[in-house]
Amino acid sequence: MRNFQPILKEIYASATNLKDKGTVASYIPELAIVDKQNFGIHLRTVDGHEYAIGDYNKPFSIQSISKVLSLTMATSLVGNKILKRVNVEPSGHPFNQLALLEIENGIPRNPFINAGAMVIADILVSRLQNPKEDFLNFVREITNDISIHFNESVAYSEKVTGFKNYAAANLLKSFGNLENDVDVVLDFYFHQCSIEMTCSQLSKAFYLFANKGKCLRNVLHLTESQVKRINALMLTCGFYDEAGEFAFEVGLPGKSGVGGGIVALLPHDFIITTWSPGLNINGNSKLGMQALEEFTTKTQLSIF
Ligand code: DON
Q1: pLDDT at 218
Q2: CA distances from 171 to 67, 68, 175, 200, 201 (A)
Q3: Ligand 1 center–CA 99 separation, angstroms
Q4: Which of the listed residues 95, 158, 246 should we mutate to test ligand 1's pocket, taking the one with most ligand atoms within 8 A of CB?
């Protein structure tokens, strides 16, 4: 058995020593009040060992990390049909950019930019009986944890300030790439983003991506090919206009959220989750990026 605890201690210490801890997202007012001193790391191996340090058991807003989970649910329901409505190319632009969507006739570059995640949300709204409840239950089931919940204040806070997301959803609608009403799709989208989880819960939720599609309790089984594709999307698109940098520095598939969380994984081996609310200029957690770079450099555990 490998002992990851000393290396977590080391990367935790060097990240917390950084003077500049980044800037907490303020365009969603509820996120602006989160203390940027929070910092946690959790590592879960596929063969059942756990290592952790810091605030790994405090819930935070998973935001865009939820886009991997909604894509996973949509994949399990409709498979490759998703690809008619959303592409699988990195955008090279910020997560909320609108220009490319207009130029490319309402087909989002990938499912992780906001517009792409809205198309996935639209698919789920069309397919599910009680979309928000069913999605939350899906997340609870794959994580094997019924305590996971939406944060209604965060969802509301994003709704009343989400002008750019309304613009993106209206653009999608104008190009015929949303089946449902803009308000209904955005209500679902804001709620999925508002889900709160701890680093420890997130590394459980992402277990299936390191374990050939089988989640912890075996309630869902994606095919190995489906998992390969979602991991490929995380590697190429998971960090928006910083996806190249993340692959270059860290070398793992992963996904970030503006709540300051990052989940990354080495297929067949482990899932590592970090949370530090201060973001860099690309909207990704500053300390999280640095800690993960140091982790894969020192352990030489990456996909490359
Ligand atoms: O739609 C938004 O802007 C947020 N709910 C999610 C954005 C996000 O997390 C981007 N990731 N780093």
Answers
A1: 79
A2: 20, 23, 6, 37, 35
A3: 17
A4: 95
Q: Are 7 and 299 in contact (CB under 8 A)?
A: yes
Model confidence band, residue 87 (pLDDT cutoffs 50, 70, 90): very high
Say if ligand 1 is within 6 A of residue 165 CB: yes
The verdict on the CB of residue 282 being under 6 Å from ligand 1 is no
Token digits for 177? 């790439």
Domain range for residue 87? 5-299
Terminal CA-CA length for the chain: 22
Residue 266's DSSP bridge partners are 270
CATH number of domain containing 157:
3.40.710.10
262 lines ligand 1 (CB under 6 A): no
Structure confidence by residue, pLDDT tens digits, 134-147: 999 999 999 999 99
58: pLDDT strictly greater than 90:
yes
For every residue of 117-142, DSSP letters joined together read: HHHHHHHHHHH-SSHHHHHHHHHHHH
- The residue type of 60 is F
Q: How many distinct structural domains can be found in the chain? A: 1
Answer yes or no: is 304 within a domain: no
Tokens of 59: 């819930």
Span 182-201, pLDDT tens digits = 999 999 999 999 999 999 99
Note whether residue 28 is domain-resident.
yes
Structural domain includes residue 271: yes
In a domain, 9, yes or no: yes
Report how far residue 121's alpha carbon sits from residue 124's, in angstroms, rounded to the nearest whole number: 5
